Amino acid sequence: MTFENKMRSRLYVASLAHKYRSLKNSFLTGSLDKPSFERGYGLTATSLSGIRSEFSSRQADINNQWNMVLSAQALTEGFVANDLSHIENNYQQTLASLADRYGKRIAYY
């Protein structure tokens, strides 16, 4: 998702840069007056700010989702480790019980 977020933002910025470049070229050739260029520059800056804000918001959501996945994985690993501990404990108790029961019989014979 991070890659898609970067690509989406790059696409928006590239299209905005293309529009701004044509606006700047018009200003430099003299076919656009200064107040119109300044208004276009302001709109471009506002649009770019919005793109950055959207990127940050989407990236924060992606990071939050990823952190939730990591915490769920850590929790699951804790459960598995706890279960393995209980299984090992039960196995040791059963093994000791069998050794006690049958060990005495073998020693008796």
Short description:
With 109 residues, the protein is mainly alpha-helical. The chain contains 2 helices and no strands.
Fold and architecture overview:
This protein has 109 residues and is mainly α. The radius of gyration is 34 Å and the shape is rod-shaped. The protein has one domain (2-108). The model has no long low-confidence stretch (mean pLDDT 89). Helix 1 (2-29) runs antiparallel to helix 2 (34-108). The protein contains 2 helices and no strands.
Instruction: Specify the number of helices.
Output: 2
Number of domains: 1
Model regions low in confidence, pLDDT < 50 over at least 5 residues: none
Number of strands: 0
What would the average pLDDT be, to the nearest integer?
A: 89
Strand content: under 5%
Keywords:
109 residues; 94% helix; rod-shaped; 2 helices; single chain; mainly alpha
Helix and strand layout, with pairings?
Blueprint: H1 2-29, H2 34-108
